[in-house]
Specification:
Layout (H helix, E strand, L loop, with lengths): L15 E15 L2 E7 L5 E7 L3 H17 L2 E7 L2 E6 H10 L1
């Protein structure tokens, strides 16, 4: 993630927002879009939408997200500019430490 903010790597300066911990409560596929309902540590509900190239591509992620729901996996939402990613907190820490 550091490289994304480093102008030496052809990227402009930007700001990353990390929202954590989140818990995924439901995932709904609508065509090529996934709508995720999450709750934060204050038990407030939020909706995150992801758009994919096709419904088939979106469907590939539903199984993984269903596991997150069943396992109550702690998640982090990382947003930079117009793009965001939902990660397992353990994965985020691995990426940060390994960067």
């Amino acid at each position: 993630m550091r490289d994304a903010l480093n102008p030496r790597h052809g990227q402009r300066h930007g700001r990353l927002s990390v929202i954590e911990p989140l818990q995924l409560r439901s995932v709904r596929r609508i065509g090529a879009r996934l709508r995720l309902a999450v709750i934060d540590r204050g038990r407030k509900r939020h909706v995150i939408s992801f758009y994919f190239a096709s419904g088939g591509v979106a469907e590939r992620y539903v199984a993984q997200m269903s596991e997150w729901i069943v396992n109550r996996t702690p998640l982090a939402y990382v947003k930079g500019g117009d793009h965001g990613v939902l990660l397992e907190i353990d994965e985020l820490l691995r990426r940060t430490v390994g960067a």
